UniProtKB/TrEMBL annotation:
It comes from the Bacteria. Keywords: DNA-binding, Transcription, Transcription regulation. One of its GO terms (molecular function) is sequence-specific DNA binding. Belongs to the LysR transcriptional regulatory family. Residues 8-65 form the HTH lysR-type domain. InterPro entries: LysR-type_TF_proteobact-type, LysR_HTH_N, LysR_subst-bd, WH-like_DNA-bd_sf, WH_DNA-bd_sf. GO terms for biological process: DNA-templated transcription. This is LysR family transcriptional regulator. The lineage of its organism: Bacteria, Pseudomonadati, Pseudomonadota, Alphaproteobacteria, Caulobacterales.
Length: 294
């Protein structure tokens, strides 16, 4: 039995994958730097080889047929695997490692440590993106991510780093001024953060309290900003004792009570599973896991 791939030019599969992914011959032509006519010709030739239509041509768009949808899924996976293999073959550890992560984790925990990574691997430059946006690592120009969640993302390898728990954090002076001896004492404290999170923390601490809706004086979209306000002496914030471990160790912050709430299932290092052998990714993975080892 002959191999059906033997009769299909790789260029036609590449053009079809782009057109299927973008839903447009025009956009596929722009991405591949060829003419729209060339895209149309390649797709038509592929349809003739397979003896069935792959797209329905509409006035301003193209839509995959059921056969086209099946081939598009396989073509997308094949192109992703091929790109990863080529990257691994040409990756000698030189170049740029692009990391995406949450703003608070980037600012407070990762950035101060990256100098040590670059000293250990001077041939690798680092580009760090701090954002709440979840980047699609299989499509976008990023190598690895550190994100919170369950650790289960299709197509990605994941390594658990540490918990995403939150506990009260404040300056030692604030703790003395408030005479914090038991969790209930925080009911009279100037609180920083979302009321719903403080309600959850009081419940975890066993404090039967009415909702504190409206009580917190400041809420921000990044944990680092809320804890920065606590560091400035403006109140008590809910923050990660792991992320702000250096401030606690150096006496700038204290964590007066052990009760914690979960901000998620933990922080994870993730990257495309088919790029696990890329030199710059393995170097960063091994270094990062050593940083969080007990």
């Amino acid at each position: 039995m002959s191999d059906p791939l033997a009769t299909l030019p790789l260029s036609a599969i590449r053009v079809f994958e782009a057109a299927a992914r973008l839903g447009s011959f025009t956009r596929a032509a722009a991405e591949l730097n060829i003419t729209q006519a060339a895209v149309s010709w390649q797709v038509k030739a592929l349809e003739q080889r397979l003896d069935q239509p792959l797209f329905r041509r509409l006035p301003r768009e193209v839509v995959l047929t059921p056969s086209g949808e099946r081939l598009a899924r396989a073509a997308s996976e094949a192109v992703t695997v091929l790109r990863a293999a080529l990257s691994d073959l040409t990756d000698t550890g030189e170049g740029v490692l692009a990391i995406t992560t949450l703003q608070s984790l980037a600012t407070v925990w990762l950035a101060p440590r990256l100098g040590a990574f670059q000293l250990a691997h001077p041939q690798i430059a680092v580009r760090l993106e701090a954002s709440g946006r979840v980047v699609d690592l299989t499509r976008e120009d990023m190598d690895v991510a550190i994100r919170s969640g369950s650790g289960e993302w299709p197509g990605l390898a994941s390594h658990y780093l540490f918990s995403a728990d939150g506990a009260p954090l404040c300056t030692p002076q604030m703790a003395r001024d408030l005479n914090l001896t038991e969790p209930r004492d925080l009911l009279k404290a100037p609180l920083i953060g979302l009321a719903s999170e403080w309600d959850a923390w009081f419940a975890a601490a066993g404090v039967q309290a009415p909702s504190i809706e409206g009580t917190p004086r400041l809420a921000a979209d990044a944990q680092s900003l809320e804890v920065a306000a606590a560091l400035a002496g403006h109140g008590v914030a809910l923050g990660s004792p792991v992320l702000f471990g250096a401030d606690i160790a150096q006496g700038r912050l204290v964590c007066p009570f052990d009760a914690r709430i979960s901000f998620g299932n933990g922080y994870w290092l993730v990257y495309p599973a088919d790029r696990r052998r890329a030199a710059k990714i393995t170097a960063f993975r091994d270094w990062l896991l050593a940083q969080v080892a007990p």
